[in-house]
Fold each of these.
Amino acid sequence: MSEIHLLSTEQLITGLQDKQFSSLELTEHYLKRIDALDGKINSFITHTSETARAQAQAADEMRAQGDKRRLLGIPMAHKDIFCTQGVLTTCGSKMLHNFVSPYNATIVSNIDKAGMISLGKLNMDEFAMGSDNSSSYYGTVQNPWNLERVPGGSSGGSAAAVAAGFVPVATGSDTGGSIRQPASFCGLTGIKPTYGRVSRFGMIAYASSLDQAGSMGKSAKDCAYLLQPMIGHDPRDATSIKHDMPDYVQDLNDAEAAAGDKPFEGLRIGVAKEYFSEGLDSEVEQAVRAALKQYEDLGATIVEVNITDPEITLATYYMLAPAEASSNLSRFDGVRFGYRCENPTDLIDLYTRSRSEGFGPEVQRRILTGTYALSAGYFDAYYTKAQRIRRLIVKDFDEAFADCDVIASPTSPTAAYKLSEDLDPASMYLGDVYTIAVNLAGLPALSQPVGLTSDGLPIGLQLIGQYWQESKLLSTAHLFQQHTDHHLQHSLIAKETV
Ligand code: GLN
C-alpha cells in the first residue's frame, strides 16, 4: 500500500476491480502524500479533500452495486484554468483570487461523469502565460526531480503533482507547449490533442485559436485513459468539432496485440533539421537522437522533412498569442467578478487600478504587446502579417506530412533549469521554440520521456501527428514504452513514502 502511487492507471483500475484496495483507501493514500509532501513543491492551489472522500465513498458503493465505468473511483486533479462549480478557480492570478465558479468546464463535468475523483486545483503560470510556473500569484512550483529546478509551465503544478505521485493523472492546457514542456521537464507523457477535439467551454481563455486541453500522466496509456472522457463535440464551444470518437485505450491494446518484434515496421518518422538548431542542449540532443535510433531499431524509418524556420514561428506566436490575450483578458475589469481595487475614485480609476493591481508583470507585458499589435496603424504590419505566416506554417506541415507519418523533435531545447533573476522574458520565450508551431497549425502532439541528463533531469521527445491522429501518437509512444523504461523512472519525491 505504501507504494500504490507508483502504479499505472491501469494497475489502479485492476486493483479496484480485484478489491486490492477501495477508492477511499486510494484517495486517502494520495491525500496523505499531498498533505505530507506538497509543502516541498507547492503543486496545489486548492484542496478538495472532503468532497474527494465523499466521492470516493460513493464510488465504492456504486462499484459494489455493479457500476462498470472503468475510471470510477480513480483520483486525478485539474489545472486551475478549468472552471469548477463551487470551487475556487484562480487561473494562477490575483485577479481571480476570490473567484468561485458558478459552473463547471465541460471537461470537468465529463471527467466527473466518468466517476473520477478530483483532489483539487493545480498551480500554474498566471493565465497560462509562462514556461516555468514563475508567474503564478500562488508561488513557484518546485520540480519533484530536483527541488532547485522549475517544473516547466504553464501546467507546472499538473506536471509536478503527477511526477510527485500525488495523483496518477492530471489535466493541463496547451496554447504553445504548456502540456508538453512541463511533461518533458518532469519525466511524464503529456498530449495536446487536435484543436477542436476537446471542448474549451469553461477553460479560461488565453489565446482562443491556440488553446487546447489535454492529459498528463506517467505513460502514454495513462494519458489515453484520462483523455477519453475529455474528448467530443460540445455545442457550447463553437470551435469544437464533430468527429469520430475513438476508444484510445482499445486502440493502444489493439496496436500492442498487432505488434511483432519490429512494431514500427512501416512507420515513417520525419525529422527536421530546423528542430535540431543552435541553442539545443547537447545532452538533450543526444538523448533524443538515441531515442530515434531505438525507434529505428524497432522498425521505423527516419526521413528528412522541412518545417517552417522556428525563429519565424516564434515571432508569429508571440504576436498572435498576446493579441488574442489582450482581447480575452479585457473581461477582467474589476466590475463583475474577481479582484477589485480599494476605494476607486471613478470608473476609469476602478478599471485601471483593478487591472494594474490584479494582473502580474508577465500578463501585463502580454496585454501591452498584444494591444499594440492590434492597434490601428500597426494591425496590418503585425497582426495580419502574423496571420499570413500562420497559413504558411500549416502549409509547411502539410507538405512534411506527405513524406512521413509523425514528426519527431526535442520537446524543449533544455532540461529543467534553475530560476534566476536574470532570465529575461525573451530567453524564456525561446524555450518554446519547438512546441508552438503545433498550436499555430492546430495539430496534435505529445511529449514522452526519453532519458535523463547527467544531473538526473528528465528529457522529452516530441511527436507531432496529422489532424485527429491522437491514437496514432499515443500508440506510437505506448509501443515505444513497451520496449523501454524511461517512463518507469521515479522522481525524488515519488520515491518518498509517508
Ligand atoms: N510558454 C508559452 C507562453 O507563455 C506557452 C504557454 C501555454 O501553452 N499556455 O505563451
Amino acid sequence: MQQLGGIVVKLDRGFPLVRCDDGSLVRCEHAASLEKNAQVRAVIGDSVRVNLPDGHDKGVIEDIDERRTCFVRRDPAERTAHQVLAANFDLVVVAEPLVGLNYGRLERELVLAHQTGARVAVVLTKADLASDEEEALAVRDKVQGLAGRDVEVRVISVDDEASIEAVRALIGDGEVAVLIGKSGVGKSSLVNVLVGSMVQDVGTVREFDGKGRHTTVDRTMVTLPGNRFIVDMPGVRGLGMWEADEGLGAAFADVDELAGRCRFRDCRHLDEPGCAVREAVEAGELAQERLDSYRELAAEIESVRARREEARQMRGEKASDRKKRFGKRR
Ligand code: GDP
Ligand code: ZN
C-alpha cells in the first residue's frame, strides 16, 4: 500500500477527486474513521493524506489537514448547520454584473468573503452592456467606496483581453482563487477565457472516470496558465450568514470604525446617546442604506448564533466544543 499527499480538486457525487503529489488524479472515498464524524468531509481545496490500497479502484482519504482558509455558509436546508464550500484558497473573487448590480447582495458576499480570511477582490462583469464608459466608471467608484481600499475592483468583459489579464494578475504564482456570484453573472465564461487554450482539468477527469460527466453543479479546481488555480462555485444559491463577526467588521470597516467611537461599547446604534454611527448618518457622512444593510446582516448573524446556542443547549454541548470542528482562521 502506498500513501500520498494531495489536494481535492473536484467533488463528484460524494467522491472527492484528489490530485496527488505525484501528479496522478485519484478518485477517493473517506476512511471509516472520518465517516464516523459527519462534520469531517473533504471539500475542494482540502489538503489530504490518501492511502492507495493495492487492487482497489479508489483511494482512501485518511486525514484532512487543518484548513488555512474556508468558505462557510449556513446550510440552506438546515438552520443550525453550516456548509464548508471550499478550503485553502488565497483569494475570493466576488462577481457582480456591472449593469443591474445588487448592492445588498454584494455586501452579503463581501461579508462571507472577508470571513474566510483570504484576500478579497470584486469583478464587475459584462461591462460591454453598460451604456458608456462613464456609467462603468461610476459603478466601479461606488463599488470601490463600498468595498474599501483593501479590495481590488476590476471591470471586465470577456471580449476585452486586457480586462481578463487584469483578473489573472490578481492571482499570484501557486495561488488558488475562488469565484463566487449568482448564476448567470458570467463566472464560467470568465474561467474559460482565463484558461485560454489550455485544456481544463475537467478534460482529464473525463478520461479518468470514463463517463464524460460534467455537470455545472460540480465544483472543479481549474488550472490556469502560469501555475494559478481557480475554483468556480456554481450552484451556490443561498448565501446565508454563519459565524461572520470578523467578516462583517472587515466588509463594513466604515461602520466599524465609527462604532468604535460610540459612547457605549455595546451600542446597537439605535437610540443610545453618544452614538457616533447615527451622528455620521445625520451629518450625511454615512448613507442610511449602508447602516440598514449593516444592521440587517448583523441581526442575521446574531439570530443564527442564538439558534445554534439553543440547539447546542438542547444537545447538552458546551460552547467550547464547537471550535474543534472549525477550520483555523487568521
Ligand atoms: P455563470 O452562471 O455565472 O457561470 O454565467 P455564464 O458564464 O454561464 O454566463 C451567463 C451568460 O452571460 C452567458 O450567456 C454568457 O454568454 C453571458 N456573458 C458572460 N460574460 C459576458 C460578457 O462579458 N459580456 C456579455 N455581453 N455577456 C457575457
Ligand atoms: Zn452607536
